Structures are given as C-alpha cells and as structure tokens.
Amino acid sequence: MSDPEENGAKETEEKEYNQNYKEVENTCRKSPDDTSGWRESEEDLGGNQLDRKELREEEEEENAEEKEKGEEEEEEEDKAAAGVQEETSEERTPEVKSTSQYGLQGTFLEILGDTGSKQSLRTDSSGLSELFRGLSSNQDYVNVAQVHPEEQQMGSSAELGERAHREAQNQLGQEERDLGRKQGGAGGGRGKARHRKRISYFLGDEEMGSQAEAGGSRESLVSSSTEDTLFQKDEGTQVYPLALSWLFGWNSSLPVFYIRERSQRVLLYVCGHTAVIYNVPRNTQHHLQGHRNVISCLCVSEDRRWIATADKGPGCLIIIWDSFTGIPVHTIFDSCPQGNGIRAIAISHDAKYLATVSDADAQEVCIWRWTLAVETPACTLELPREHGFQHEEKDTLVHSAPLLVENTFNKLVGKFSQSIFHPNSTQILSATLEGKLVVWDIHRCALAPSSLADGPFIRPCKLVHLQREAVSVLTTADGYIVTGDIKGNIKFYDQTLSIANWYSHLNLSCIRTLSFSPSPVSPRTEKSNFPLDCTLKGDLFVVRNFIIATSDATVYHLTTDGTRLEKLFVEPKDAVCAISCHPYQPLMAVGSACGVIKVWDYEQKKYLFSRVFEKGLGVQSLTHNPEGALLGAGFTEGTVYILDAMSLQNEAPEPFKYSRSNVTHVSFSHDSQYMATADVNFTVAVYMMVVRGGRRVWEYLARLRSHRQSICSLLFGVYLDSNEPRLLSLGRDRLLIEYNLSRSHKDHLEVLDIHHTDQGHHPTCMVWYPLLTKELFLLVCDSGYKVKLFNSTTKMCRKTLLGPAYGSPVEQARVLPVRTALELEKRYLVFINRDKVGLQILPVDGNPHKTCAMVCHPDGVAGLALSYDGRYAFTAGGHDCSVVQWKINLSALDAAVSLGGEDLTPFYGLVPGGREGKFYRELEDYFFYSQIRSQGIDTMETRKVSEHICLSEVPFVMRAIGFYPSEEKIEDMFNEIKFSEYADTGKLIDRINLPDFLKVFVNHRSPFGNTLSGIRQSFEVLGTPNAQGEKAVRREVLLQLLLSRGEHMTQEEMTDCFATLSGLNPEGWKSEPAASASRGSEICLEEELPDEITAEVFASDILGLTISEGPGEDGQ
C-alpha cells in the first residue's frame, strides 16, 4: 500500500475508533431512531473537522428532542390506560459495528505444550491482552510507527465519561417509559429501580440521592474526573472496625502495568484479592477492593483508563474499574458457573469488549459487551483440547487450531510462551522457550467445505531463530517488537525482525513483565542521552520509559533517556509466614520462605533494612523479646537464630541446631531470661541466658517431645505468688502441659502437670486472658467454635462460650495492647481463622454482635501481629506472599454492639423464632415443668413457684430441647454455674434462673446444631468400608464400643437406652418418678439393630433424628 493510501486508511480508522471509544460507558441501549439520527450527525461532522464543543452542543439538542418525545409518549400512555391495549414499545438494540469494522477477526490464544503433542491454552493474561488488540476498521492493524502516540490514545476519557453519563440519563427515562408501557403500575416502579441500579455504576450514593431530590441531572464523578483525581480524594471517616491500610508485597505471577507517567508515576499490580494502584513519588496506595477470591488475572485498556480484574473460586467476579477514580463501573456476577473462575482476561483496543477464558476442564472463551451492562456474554465458545485462533462471526466464535509439529519447519520449535499480533501486518507472532518466533499468516477463506462459518484461519509461514535464551515476554512498543528472556535481557526488533537495540547489562533475573508508559517520549533536547540503535545509520534509539518485573518479585523502572535503572521495590518471592511487631516502636519484621527478613516502618510505609540468609534457610517464625532488643527466628529446617532487632546481626555466636524440622513457634519470657521454641515434630526446646566471662550469652537448656500431635500455642507467663516465669504448651492432642523451669537442667525439661482440655474438639490457640476479673484465666479456642476459660492454677474449665463463627474456627488470637490506663477497663481480642481477621470485645459472653471479621487472605492466613499501640493489626498471607496492614476502629465495633440490643436481646436472636417463637415458649414450659417434677408430680403439698431450678435439673431440660451434652460437658456446666460468683462472694451457686439458663444453652450447644457431618466424621474413624464403599460399623462392634470406649455405658444403661429408642420404654422413663418399671431386658438387640450401621442409619433409623448435612459456607 502506498503512503497516501495508508495514511487515508489510518485517518478512516481513527475517526471510527475515536467515535467508538466515546460509547464505552454507555450502559443503556439506543432505539433504532436514535441510532440512525446519531449516525447522520456523525456523517455531518466530517471526521475530525468539527471540534468537541460543537459535538456536545449537537448531542444536547438531540437529548432535548428525546426528552420532548418522551413527554409526548407519556401523554399517549395515559390515554392508552383508559382501555386501549396497544404495544408501543420498540426493542432497543445497541449500535454494533460490523465485524470488519471492529476488527474482531480473531483472538489468537497462546499455546503451551510441545508442538508434537496436545496444544493447550497458556494462562498468561498479559499475552491474551496483546492478542486481543487486533481490532480495526477496514484495515486489520495500525502502523504504530507512523501514528503519533497521542493519536493512538482512544479519545478523551473525561469526554467519554461525560457522554456516557448524559446518554445514561436520557436512556434511563426512555427505558422507564418503555417498561411502564409493558408492565404498568407497580411493575413500572420495579423497572425504575432496576435501571437506576445500572446508572449507579457511574454515580455515588450521594449523587444518586441528590438527583432523586432535585429531580435533575448531575455530572457523575466518573465523567468529570481527571487522571489526578484518585490521589486527591479524601479518605473520609472510617466506618468499619477493620479497614485496609497498606499492602506489603505483590503477586509476582501476574503483570505490573504502567498506567500513568505524565504528572506522576503510577503503577497497577495485584496483591491477594486486591488490586493496588500505587503512586510511586507520593508512596501512597489506592486499593480496588471487591473480590472475595484471589485475583487470577487482570488487564488494562489502551489508554490505561479502564481496569478489568477477575478471580477464581466460588462466586467468581469480573469487575471493571475506572482508574481515574477507583470506582467499579461494572460487575459481572457468576461469570463462570461451570468452572472455577477466570484464567485469563483481555480488553479490546476500543475498550468495549472483554475476552475471558474460564478455568475449567473444558475451557470456555466468552466475549462480553461490558459497556451495555449485560449479565451474559455476547458469544461463547467451548474450547476443544487443541486450542486455537478465535474470532467473532455473527455473535458466534469459531476457531482455527493448526497442528504445529517438528516436521512443519524440520526444526525444533519448543513450547509457546506468548503470542501477539504484528504491529503493522495481518500476522501473528508466537515466541517459544527455545528462543524462536513462529510467524502465522491470517487467511480469510473457508477452512474446509464443511466449515461452520466462512471465518479466518491461520497457517504457520516462517520460523525465526531470534536468540538462544528462552523468550518469556513478547510485546510491542513504539513500532518495535520487544522480547524479555529468562536471562534478564530485553531486546527490541523492528517490524522485519531485525535487531534494533538491547539491554543486556542490567543484571536482571528472568523477565516476567514489560509495561511501557502510556505517555509518549518527550521531545529531544540538547541534554537528551538516548543510545544509538544497531542499524548502519546509527540513529538515536528513542522509546518510551517502561516498567520491568522479574521472577524474583522485583520491580524496576527504566528511563530510556540516559538508560537509568531504578529499583522501585523488592518483595518476597516465596511464602510469607512470619511477622512480628516491635513492642515500643512502629517497626515490623517480615520473614519469608526464601530466607529474607525485612524490617519496615509501618507508619511511614518505608523499608528500612533486611538480611538474606544462606540458601535453604526459610524463615517460619519471628518474635521480638519484651524489651524489643532481640528477635528470635525459627527456620524451616530447624535452625534457630537470636538476632539483634535493629541490625539483624547474630546475637549468639552460632545459631542453634537442635531440631531437624520446621520451627513453628518462638516465645520469650517476660524478663528475657528464657526463650522457647516448638517444631512440627511435637517438640518443645528451651534456651536460657547465662553469664560467661562477664558477658551474657544464650545457651541451650533442654528439649522434650511432650505432645503426640502438632503444637498450636507456646506461652510464657508469670506465677501469681512470685516473679518467676512459667511455660505452657497446647497441642492438637488436647493436652495442656506446664513445664517446671526451676527444676529443669541441662538436657532435662521437667513437666509440672498435664491437663486434658476436651473430649471431642481439639484446641487451636491459647492466650492469657486480661485481668478483667479477680481470677487469672487462660483463653483457649477450639475447633468447635468455642472459647473456653481455664483457671491458670487449677486448669479447671470455668466457662465455655460461643466464639466467632465465620466459616472456620479461630486459629490464632492476640489481646489488643492498650495505650492508657483508662483503656484497661475495656479490652479487645484480635483473631484470625482460615481466611479472615476479626475483632472480639472482651469479656467474651457469647454475644454475636461483639465480634466482626473481614476477609484478608482468601488462600489462607499464616500469621498475626499487633502494633505496640493497638492501632494496627497485621496478617501474613502465606503463599500469596503478602502482608496486610489493618487500621483498627474500636468505636465502629462498639456502635454495632449497641445496635444489636442489650441484656438478653442478642441471645434471643440465637434461638429459632426469637423470644416470641415456639422454641422459647417450649423452653419456658420445660423450665417450669422441671420445678414441678423436682417437687414431685403426685405431691399434694402447696406448689412453690420460683424463678430458678436446681442444678440437677439442668441436663434434663437441655436434652428436652434437643441438646445432648456428654457427661464432661455437664460437669463443665455445673462448674460454670457453681463458681460463677465464687471469686466475688466466696459462695457456691446451686440453682439457675431462666435468662442464665438460656445463656448457658446457647454457649454450650453446637453453633450449627446437630449435623450429619459430625456423625459421619465419627463413623469415618470407627468404621470400615462396606460393599457400597461407605464407612460402616458392625452391630457387635458398635455395642462393644459403647461398653468400653469414651464415657462408656453399663450393660443395663445401654439396653435401657435402646429399649427407649425402640419404643419399649416410655420417653424419659428413667427421669419420671411415676413411670413404670423398665422393660429394657425384654429387647433383643440382634433383632432391633441391623448387621451394618452407617452414619445415615444411625442418625435416622436408630436415633430418629432429622438433621441437616452441615453448616453453610459462612459457618452460620
């Protein structure tokens, strides 16, 4: 094509392209009349000859005509309501350019796997983004080298938002009228609410309310914003008890995007389930929060205005954000109902289309017209095992997947790493791990006579050996084809694949991402220092600045003028499990599995210093001593270091190597004379400080394998009658063990006492309960969502309370530090479970309104730390390689408690129907019937009505309302009631009233009631597989277990129970004084019980219970 022809094609394309871009935010559909009128106005504009002001005036006139037309239609509707039933609404269809105009000739999906085997889709969403850029008008591609970079931008984003807002407002009225004609009356109101919800993508809640009151239109924040708006916004008042403050780390498997440079350098990256917009010079972050699962892929539009993020997991989402304001303008729910979420995502050149690939066994490609606010894709295609070339043809997708083998070029091709469209031809380029480039031609004829559509197909035409190193990144910039390889080299090729320039002296690791600035290169001056290219002419090599992200989780900025490389941040590349906060300063130490300990100033968000340990040493646990001078570090292979907290240098001459496994816990005594560690081999080791030669040195004391299962907590304390330290450990084997440090000596760690915490549920963590009462308690959380208080001296369980129930049990807990003496009167507990961080108001009493939780790490939380002043909480995400800083707002949680009600009101809400429900009425009846029964049913004496029942009646009332406690739980209830006032009055309590009984009931029962999953879990342990593959217990084995294991029964008790269950004895016969004698001896268990008993048979046929499968997803 000649230059004039090419320039003409370019101008035609730009005209259509800019016009298309102005419609990106249009969330409502146009009528056919409006569409034709809009097309005529577009033709009258004469391309770019009419300036924006005239265009806006013409659009405002059209909007005014639409409004008048709408008022006339409303008058006609009123007349039609009198009896004329006539369909006046017309189907509104959006203006959709033809396939040739939009250039959706295809999205070539990258291929992984050997060329001779099955071709599979590569999961790198950055590569898919490059491929989906092949959208054009009459010509497939634009010559990037000839078009000015500013002209490549897709119009003014501010104008785009403004136009979208005006059209949305006009269309809102039109759609309401159309919907009113179809439904009328109340139906029309529902239609207004639904369409108002669509417009709310572009309006804040305040703006919606103001428009509703004023009845007029108001400019939205999206349409009026500029690229500097985001970091000028006021944070406002914190309304949540826990608010995200800062994110340390990033997901190095996903790309980093350079989204702004003109006024300030701004980056976009992902950390866990949050996308982060990071302002480098200001050192500030804006968090795009909305995903519940970890973000799996993201992309940005050509002008970096629109950001699309997607996740993998239950309830997966696709969210489109405005990068100028951080507002989510559109959300696609349930985008992958058949799969596990989205694996790759890309946005079209004009930002009007999204392409997604699902993460399922049978992957599906979907094209979304997200600007129309639709909930279903425009077209889909289920990919066969051999993935290939995709394109849209009349709202359907067809694909071309040619088989590429070694015989194709008679050379080894290698696995594909990434593919892009050639910047100035109808070709596709695919890079391989052998350093080669496959060039594909796009053909527009039918694939075969039996083809479903006359769509394009691809054919390999050339294999170019670019380099020896494997190509890990392939992209385009300023007309160049750019590669990054596993050796850290960055090379630029011209459009004929001739080398133009390269950067090989930067000493980088494997390149993961190359993202070029959206701003073009500044005009050259006398001070410019661009390098020369590799051509014979030796011209200046001028290319825009770019961001480099490497496999070691490091992000660099390269200024091409002068070739200045700046390291922006270095984050852990492996799991982060260890965090610890300094007890007196705003310092946080973070340890990762790659052997790095970094120290941050979390108030200034500033990295201070770090230490990299030798290869093979992964940091698993960190703890500061009470003075903040030392930092104890446990490593994955069993080594223990004692470090100087301010320099990270060794405090001990040599590290301690007395364990061969992962050191999970490190703890210091209150006087820093002892340090204890625990490892995954259930072993506790103790180290002590001694004086040698006038110097204090740390020495190994002793170790003991004291537990049978993993240790979940290791605590130092202080004896009440002295200042001597005490050491306790708690394990999943349900053993609480205290050690006698004073009598321990070299290689001998003596045990003081051992206590069993529970029969069924295993403990998960333990902390010292603050001094809110006269007694000193140990707070223990267990796997049954309970919080238990044990007397620190006698180890007696004094209270059992309902703990936080947010999908999984509490795994770690810390008491929030206080800053003033006044704050000692009200204390708080910070906890984490599998994926959430939460707050609990102390004292714990079972009130569900006194707790809250937020999702912090969807893939699992590994660690928890608190700032010395109680203002911040920090959570480590483990495999997501991040640490999240949470700002704590206690007044918000206190307000939520007050809204939940006082006294017994929160507890009434925990029983079915509340206080006025059937369950509570039955409880009252049983409670007062228990008084009658305890006085004798047949007595003729005057009845003594009381508000209390004696303790001996408590188990019978519990069982009557459906809670069946074990003998151990009954003993815990008795102790809880008897000693409830002992510390204050010195007296024991032998009776209980109804309100206190209700509290005991809701705190001791299972939070989810009787569930089949619990019974099935017991049969998994006790049973053996039957012919159907189910775990079952033989009848004789079950009877023997009941007589010999656990709280075993006598023969008489067992026979009487089965007789009652079989109907031979009246219900409650043993507890009813007037009941007849037992007939249990008449039952024949061999006849009444089946030979094999499964969990379902035991629950429904023997016990006669109708119970649910298990708790819901939220654990409620």
UniProtKB/TrEMBL annotation:
CC terms in the record's Gene Ontology section: sperm flagellum
| SMART domains, per the entry | WD40
Q: Does the keyword Cell membrane apply?
A: no
Where is there biased composition of kind Basic and acidic residues?
7-40, 160-181
Keyword annotations for this protein?
Cell projection, Cilium, Flagellum, Repeat, WD repeat
Q: Which locations, inside or outside the cell, does it occupy? A: Cell projection, Cilium
Q: What is its main location?
A: other
Where is this chain compositionally biased, Acidic residues type? 57-78
Under which name does UniProt file this protein?
Answer: Cilia- and flagella-associated protein 251
The taxonomy runs:
Eukaryota, Metazoa, Chordata, Craniata, Vertebrata
Which gene underlies this protein? Answer: Wdr66
